[in-house]
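Supplementary Note 3. Input sequence used for the single-chain structure prediction.
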Amino acid sequence: MSESVGGTNVYEAVPHASPEAVVVYCGDPRFQTAFEPFIERELGLRRGQFIPFVVGGGAGVLANPERLPKEFKFMKDRFELIHRNFPPIKRVVLINHEDCIYYRMLAQRVPGFLKDHVSKLRDRPGEDLDPIARVFHRLLAHLGLRIELYYARFTNADHSQVTFDHVLA
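The predicted structure, written as discrete structure tokens, is reproduced below.
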């Protein structure tokens, strides 16, 4: 909500933010209207209680650090920065979603020997959540973060409704 003060628009902020979690999700505009209520209602996190980490492909780059080293380093560096500046955070929520454009791009970009693996995941990014959890525990365990995994999928043919499945890893 905004108001005008002296002809300048002024917007609300969270003056005493105390983040408890990092929520990693994709910037795909088709899912944005679903992410906010899901985070608040189902994850129990209001504005100021979480750090949104919005990146194309969501947590997908964490699945293949050896194959996508620059993208993995970007994510790793951000998690370490967040950990240093907000040490109380111990919870990370990783969300992938159906029909991810990032996964389609990967299928075109990766070398031939990886194409079969990526092609299988292109239409099923939810299957990447288990490898993502393993990599997170193996390479980011020093941060002491507990992870939760979710998969967002369309529930109707016109893609106007989304549900979130909790994925156990």
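DSSP finds five helices and seven strands in the chain. Residues 21-167 form a domain with the Beta-carbonic Anhydrase; Chain A fold (CATH 3.40.1050).
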